[in-house]
Design brief:
This protein is an alpha/beta fold. The chain has two domains: 3-36 and 94-161 and 250-318, FAD/NAD(P)-binding domain; 60-92 and 164-246 and 320-334, D-Amino Acid Oxidase, Chain A, domain 2. The protein is built from ten helices and 16 strands. The strands form three sheets. Strands 1, 2, 7, 8, 9, 10 and 16 form a seven-stranded mixed sheet that branches. A seven-stranded mixed sheet has the order 5-4-12-13-14-11-15, with helices on both faces. The protein has a two-stranded antiparallel sheet with strand order 3-6. It is globular, with a radius of gyration of 20 Å. 40% of the residues are buried. Bound molecules: flavin-adenine dinucleotide. Flavin-adenine dinucleotide binds next to helix 1, strand 2, strand 8, strand 11 and strand 15.
Length: 341
């Protein structure tokens, strides 16, 4: 059985950036599933800053066909709409993840499969994975949980540290020119979170985050309600769903212990207001890798991610103004920061 310094579980932004920044003296194995991650695929200013500061330019192949300059914000129940300026980069998430994985060094052993079980013994960890119809096992001194919102690493080692989760459902439709390029939709009859429409080339995504109970019913109800509002989506081409992490307070964000590290969405580094998580996944991946150059890596990692927690705290303070209907109404009616026609 092969033994590594690090077993990285997950090959999304957090796992890839961790592997790319790890000191080459260490050995690492990355177990990753290449199932497409349901995502809006919008790169925020923080994510753009991440690349700008490292002088990394994005190849045009990962950009989606429509770039975004505004968000149409619609409150269905209160019959309100406003336009706000936004400067996201609209990307193809599958190609983006593949491109980031291209930064992972050749010497990192990559296993395309699913980690199904992790056990700890006196001399480290053993991880069982399922790949091409067979089970295999690898061993490591450290476990890196970069496995997203439904993290097996978090559930195995830190089940007591709960985090608020929703089910996110997205459907793809053929693009309709009359539908906004990017819309954020609120409807408290269907969800306490929000929904979105994002155009991507010939398709448009309609997605939303829902409480687990009756999530599909509420998704379908919201589709009918936006249809009645005058937004016509048409027939769905494909449907996808996954868990979405949304910390309720910063105590739900957890970076792990001396041997088990949580990165990105597995740790809870996601904006509770916009669900933006790509920049936070990349920053936490890089900080965790660099922390292994210090004597107390978990302490260093925790310290270097303090500003990510602080930014999430600010987003928690902003959240009521987006998600409480009366406060949202007041903000939308005031026209503060809205684009005037
Ligand atoms: C519907 C939706 C829309 C979103 N829209 C945006 C957006 O527009 N912009 C933005 O910045 N953020 C967005 N987010 C959040 C963002 O997608 C995540 O925060 C970000 O992808 C986290 O990166 P990560 O590397 O931590 O985890 P992930 O990107 O989730 O990557 C984890 C990887 O690990 C793999 N994996 C999981 N379990 C295992 C296992 N047991 N074995 C092997 N592999 C495993 C998964 O398949 C996945 O590839 C959205 C989230 C959702 C759900």
């Amino acid at each position: 059985m092969r033994k590594f310094d690090f077993i990285i579980i997950g090959g999304g932004p957090a796992g890839s950036v961790f592997a790319a920044n790890l000191n080459p003296d260490y050995s690492a194995c990355m177990i990753y599933s290449d199932m497409p991650k349901p995502c809006g695929g919008l790169l925020s200013e923080d994510a753009q800053d991440y690349f700008a500061k490292r002088n990394i330019t994005l190849p045009k192949e990962i950009l989606a066909d429509l770039q975004i300059s505004r968000v149409d914000t619609i409150d269905i129940e209160q019959n309100l709409s406003r336009v706000y300026k936004r400067t996201y980069l609209n990307i193809d998430r599958i190609r983006f993840d593949e491109w980031l994985r291209g930064f992972v060094p050749e010497k990192t052993v990559k296993i395309k499969g699913i980690a199904t079980k992790i056990t700890e013994s006196s001399d480290g960890f053993s991880v069982t994975y399922f790949c091409n119809g067979i089970n295999g096992t690898v061993c490591g001194k450290y476990i890196i949980g970069a496995d997203g919102g439904n993290s097996i690493v978090r559930k195995t080692f830190f089940p007591e540290i709960k985090i608020r989760r929703y089910i996110s459902i997205q459907q793809f439709f053929k693009v309709n020119p009359d539908v906004p390029g990017y819309a954020c939709i609120f409807d408290e009859k269907s969800t306490e979170c929000c929904a979105w429409i994002i155009k991507k080339g010939e398709n448009m995504i309609f997605g939303g985050a829902f409480e687990p109970k009756d999530c599909r019913k509420n998704f379908e109800q919201l589709k009918l309600r936006i249809e009645a509002y005058g937004i016509h989506l048409g027939e769905p081409i494909k449907t996808e769903a996954c868990m979405l992490t949304r910390p309720k307070y910063t105590g739900q964000i957890f970076s792990g212990n001396e041997k088990v590290f949580l990165l990105g969405e597995a740790a809870g580094f996601v904006s509770p207001s916009s669900f933006e998580g790509i920049s936070r996944a990349m920053y936490s991946g890089e900080y965790a890798a660099k922390a292994f150059d210090s004597d107390n890596s978990q302490k260093t990692y925790k310290k270097s991610t303090a500003w990510l927690r602080f930014k999430i705290m600010l987003k928690l303070m902003k959240s009521p103004f987006m998600y409480r209907p009366l406060l949202r109404k007041a903000v939308m009616l005031s026209g503060i920061t809205a684009v005037k026609k």
